[in-house]
Request: fold
Amino acid sequence: MFPKYDVIVVGAGHAGCEAAVAAANMGSKVMLVTMNMQTIAQMSCNPAMGGVAKGQIVREIDALGGYSGITSDHTAIQFRMLNKSKGPAMWSPRVQSDRMLFARMWRNMLEAHENIDFWQEMVTGLVVKDGRCTGVRTGIGLEIESRSVVLTNGTFLNGLIHIGEKQFGGGRAGERAATGITEQLVGLGFESGRMKTGTPPRIDGRSLNWDAMELQPGDEKPGKFSYTNTPDITDQIPCHIAYTSPEVHEELKTGFDRSPMFNGRIRGLGPRYCPSIEDKINRFADKDRHQLFVEPEGRDTCEIYVNGFSSSLPEDVQFKALQKVSGFENMKMFRPGYAIEYDFFQPTQLSANLETKLVKNLFFAGQINGTTGYEEAGSQGLMAGLNAHLAIEEQDPFILKRSEAYIGVLIDDLINKGTNEPYRMFTSRAEYRIILRQDNADLRLTPLAKKLGMNHMDERMQRVEDKIEASKQVEKYFRKKSITPDQVNTYLEAQQSAPIQQGVKFVNVLLRPNMELEKLRACIPGMNEELAAFDEESIGLAEVNLKYEGYIKKEQEMVDKMNRLEEVRLKDNFDFHALSALSSEAREKLTEIKPRTIGQASRISGVSPSDISVLLVHVGR
Reply:
């Protein structure tokens, strides 16, 4: 009935979709198996992509040939660059998406790929022979043969939904849970655990008083995620901001005795940085109010997502509490919020290419690894798909260093430290964030994707080369361009910056604190015309390179120093227990993780600098 596939991807969420296209673009014949073809790439939670650090990940996915950025640009209804008041290492793009268009476009792109087939059914088990995964088994007893398998099950593994005192099986509202896989993997020796996430109520926007809320418009000059020629965002739709109040909090507290979070029915640990509303008012009792982002679900729907009001309280409590929010007095609810518990597997059981250590040619990506967020999931899916193809072709794995990408930081954290709560990416997790900016992801990663042999990177690589050359030309122009006091002193005084007394090079003024390039350019007659040959992205890159040249150089020196440890390889069968000079904890952790290099060993929890010194001495360094 089926041919033998190169890669089977189980699950068609954000991780599964990126895994499928990554493997397919490498030349693998892919089968994408999903329980419901109508929910491919569904935005199960908030209708948005990007955000702090997450926006950098979306741009990295795009730079590596993934589709999340392209889909986001085509279906965006609002764009905002977050953290613009801070340095460029913190700038993070975010789009509000049209939920239905987003999923539809993903499905269209997948179906247009000649290397991707589909099957709609639950996968209940894996086919494992001689320690190697060779296919999947479905609910009606079919076996589909493949050379490798990528599991991207999201919240579906033994998923359990909680609304107040009610609980029922499900991987998402209206969809059944997936069973069988966890039990088989545990039988094979894998360590599993339980995690929890949640979602807020969905509201009828026609019933809201928008004038009672704060308007949150998109950027005047909206940017994009993809480095390809995606359309500009037009006709942006605003979001709004509302607030809870002491009255709202008191109403919520009336349901605490029926809360599955507080009476012990939920065993899984939820995301620390995206708590439920009941958790917020319990943990932050000193706060009189909490911010709510009232977000449209799309251009052609009145459905509203109340970001910040995730809850598993009884539906009547959610309803009454929301009606006490200003602007929500006559609110009508589409469905209540809920919490969901699901199985995950400690990611320390994975190698750096996301292949499991216990079963060859079996890869995990997304929430099965204990992460949270579309962006984190999509990036893992892309890396798992690439590496599944490379593994069956017996090629070296594709592994990103911490100094190369936020994706590298994410995976390195997971496999070396594991996680006991849903892992979310932040800029603070990246020690080299001045280098890992959102504006240069293509410069960092597209050459690596091109070298891998992905079949659609030629045009992207030409864009990278053009961007590098253009930014160099702009830098050269800024260094050579002379300006006079009468041109800029009015602007400098307005910025409380010392006026110049004679003609100087433009770059000398640009490098002063609080200088805004766009306003400074407007002061110089003819400058905008002289820069018209260059796109704004190349001009922005040139500005950052000039302003942060010293910091970038210093950080690169740190990277070079750390990379020397990454080059010191450890044997695959290294016997750490034979080194009595190592601490007992280090011997235990190193044996469990099996680091590939000294650098990786240095990032494992419980391995001290003195343990690293012992390893360096042992390998003759």
